């Protein structure tokens, strides 16, 4: 078993997976472990929809078709800042161009960019797709709880030899997802996640993001 430190530091967004099924008992163990995540007053506001097989393929085909047709959908909430500014804009660009650069996709190659982005809607070929949702009457604190739960899913998955990729892209087509998965209108789609066994030979999985220095985000308040 890897240590907590190894699970956190070794985690990365994996965008290519082996054609290898994930046993149900392993996925259940991952979700049960993640369910130990903290939440205010222990209300545990998370909801998870697990997609595999034909159900996953049908949703993916629908979303890919819409993206190819130029239907960009619309999110219900702003995941990113409405007005970008540095240092956040610079970090985003570094990540985006770093990934495309590894794949040999130039800044003017819009078609290849779109094709790569479209891989989101296939869960990057992972055998398992997760959709996370929350009841609409939950407040901001419960969204923070959801973040801790989602992180716990990713770390618990690593302990089982699995890799993941959290994906906000699915929010663009929340209406399609809610209809396909029969998700109640009283719930809101937050994001999706690919889960499976990472392909160690895939070039795209060599991409690693950087992290800022401790001095860039920590303020020591002395007595």
Question: What is the fold's blueprint, element by element?
Answer:
Blueprint: H1 4-10, H2 24-34, E1 47-51, H3 53-68, H4 88-102, H5 110-118, E2 128-135, H6 140-159, E3 163-167, H7 174-180, E4 187-196, H8 214-217
Antiparallel strand pairs: 1-2, 2-4, 3-4
Helix pairs in contact: 2-6
Could you please describe the fold and organization of this structure?
With 223 residues, this protein is an alpha+beta fold. The chain has a single domain (10-79, 117-209), classed as NADH Oxidase, CATH 3.40.109.10. 40% of the residues lie in helices and 13% in strands. The chain is built from 8 helices and 4 strands. It has a 4-stranded antiparallel beta sheet with strand order 1-2-4-3, with helices on both faces. Helix 2 packs across helix 6 (140-159). The radius of gyration is 18 Å and the shape is globular. The termini are far apart. The mean pLDDT is 96.
